[in-house]
């Protein structure tokens, strides 16, 4: 495979450059191996010149230009990096121009807007939603389920917790989750508080072999991780989901981002 070095550069956190850059590079991952370097908070010309020197040195050492994905509102910093020995891709250029023309308004060029917060109320609301996901993880506070926008249910390690946090952080959704246990399987029903909020329920299922691999990483050689138990739990869980007619998503081969998008669509 070909080997290329990639820089994700930003005057702020670099999340936008990284996210979009990775999406673009994924189209070439079968033929090219990418080494990634993250450079957030390049917010002054001095920092930009130091980084340009590093890029030039890397170009000389590797004999091929590094790729640079950047989100730089400051035109002075942008020009310094653009003249380094690299393929410079300014992600803002693709979108800001057409948006400015359509809106009839010039962009502000201010730093730190994309991942900052404009007022205390917005920030406090976001933190409250994230705290809700954390405090309502793994069935910890089932008396708060009536406050949730969505409640994920499924066997242990089926992806409930990371999905709840992703929904909270990226979509401001109040997400709680409940782990199915042997007691639930023995009774063949869910706790009343879940049934009272049935419209909010989304069930996550997973292939037992995949579940076995995930649990082995956590408790290797335990009964909890055994393939037999994984098969039993997923079978009983799916029976319960069908019986109660709960919408179900298979997490076996989907990323947290894909699962979250499907949950939002189902809601």
Explained architecture:
It is elongated, with a radius of gyration of 23 Å. Helix 1 links the parallel strand 1 and strand 2. It has 267 residues and is α/β, with parallel strands linked by helices. The chain has a 4-stranded parallel β-sheet, sandwiched between helices. Strands 6-5-7-8 form a 4-stranded parallel β-sheet, with helices on both faces. The protein is built from 11 helices and 8 strands.
Mean pLDDT: 90
C-alpha termini separation = 42 Å
What's the order of the H and E elements? EHEHEHEHHEHEHHEHHEH
How big is the Rg?
Answer: 23 Å
Biggest sheet statistics: 4 strands, parallel
Contiguous low-pLDDT stretches (5 residues minimum) are none
How many separate structural domains? 2
CATH class of the largest domain: Alpha Beta
Residues in helices, as a percent range: 40-55%
Count of beta strands: 8
């Amino acid at each position: 495979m070909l080997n290329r070095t990639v820089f994700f550069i930003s005057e702020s956190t670099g999340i936008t450059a990284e996210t979009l850059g990775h999406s673009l590079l994924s189209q070439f991952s079968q033929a090219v191996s990418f080494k990634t370097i993250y450079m957030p908070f390049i917010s002054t010309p001095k920092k930009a010149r130091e980084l340009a020197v590093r890029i030039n040195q890397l170009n000389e050492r590797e004999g091929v230009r590094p790729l640079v994905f950047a989100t730089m509102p400051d035109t002075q910093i942008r020009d310094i990096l653009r003249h380094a020995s690299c393929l410079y891709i300014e992600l803002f250029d693709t979108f800001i121009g057409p948006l400015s023309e359509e809106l009839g308004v010039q962009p502000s060029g201010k730093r730190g807007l994309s991942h900052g917060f404009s007022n205390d109320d917005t920030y406090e609301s976001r933190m409250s939603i994230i705290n809700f996901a954390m405090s309502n993880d793994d069935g910890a506070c089932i008396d708060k389920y009536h406050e949730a926008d969505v409640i994920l249910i499924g066997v242990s390690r089926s992806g409930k917790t990371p999905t709840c946090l992703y929904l909270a952080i990226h979509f401001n959704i109040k997400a709680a989750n409940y782990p199915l246990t042997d007691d639930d399987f023995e009774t063949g029903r869910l706790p009343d508080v879940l049934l009272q909020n049935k419209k909010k329920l989304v069930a996550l299922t997973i292939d037992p072999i995949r579940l076995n691999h995930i649990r082995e990483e956590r408790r290797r050689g335990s009964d909890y991780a055994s393939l037999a138990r994984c098969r039993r739990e997923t079978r009983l869980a799916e029976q319960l989901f069908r019986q109660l007619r709960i919408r179900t998503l298979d997490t076996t081969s989907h990323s947290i981002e894909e699962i979250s998008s499907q949950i939002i669509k189902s809601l």
